[in-house]
Amino acid sequence: MTTRPSSDLETFVNPQPARDYTIRIDIPEFTCLCPKTGQPDFAKIMIEYVPGELCVELKGLKLYMWTFRERGAFHEAVTNEILNHLVEAIAPNFIRVRAEFNVRGGIYTTVIVEHRAENWQPPVLVNLP
């Protein structure tokens, strides 16, 4: 295999840093391991963010997500870890990570975590008639 999992999140310069806009990324094939049983956990990870000076590069994000495949992680811990690493890498104005885990033992789990830059205010939503 020519590509390998990597914990490095590659970034690039935001082409419109003066404008607030939203980037949405869906990752429907996220996998990690149950820390109790070692069985695979499957989830859809959804990332929404308003970039600051940097954006996350998608191939690097894919390689980063692969790093969880062989790791045991509680749903809450892995979702917060992903958010923390993205905040550290790109310092977004706002970011939300939503992890919808498939059924385990008859229970579905959804974990949603957010971060907002200290001095950032969201734009006012325009409702057209």
Structure description:
The protein has 129 residues and is an alpha+beta fold. The chain has a single domain, classed as 2-Layer Sandwich (GTP Cyclohydrolase I, domain 2). Helices cover 19% and strands 38% of the residues. It has helices at residues 58-66, 75-90, and strands at 11-13, 23-33, 40-50, 54-56, 94-104, 107-116. The chain has a four-stranded antiparallel β-sheet, with helices on one face. It has a two-stranded antiparallel sheet with strand order 1-4. The termini are far apart.
The count of β-strands is 6
Task: Report the portion of residues in β strands.
Answer: 35-45%
- Could you list the spans in which at least 5 consecutive residues all have pLDDT below 50? none
Would you list the SSEs in sequence order as H and E?
EEEEHHEE
What structural class results from the helix and strand content?
alpha+beta
Alpha-carbon distance between the two ends: 53 Å
Q: Rg, please?
A: 16 Å
What CATH architecture would you give? Answer: 2-Layer Sandwich
Largest beta sheet: strand ordering: 2-3-5-6
As for the number of domains, it is 1
Q: In the CATH scheme, what's the topology name?
A: GTP Cyclohydrolase I, domain 2
Largest sheet: 4 strands, antiparallel
The averaged pLDDT comes out at 95
Count of helical regions: 2
CATH superfamily: GTP cyclohydrolase I, C-terminal domain/NADPH-dependent 7-cyano-7-deazaguanine reductase, N-terminal domain
What proportion of the residues is helical, as a percent range? 10-25%
CATH class: Alpha Beta
Cα shape: globular
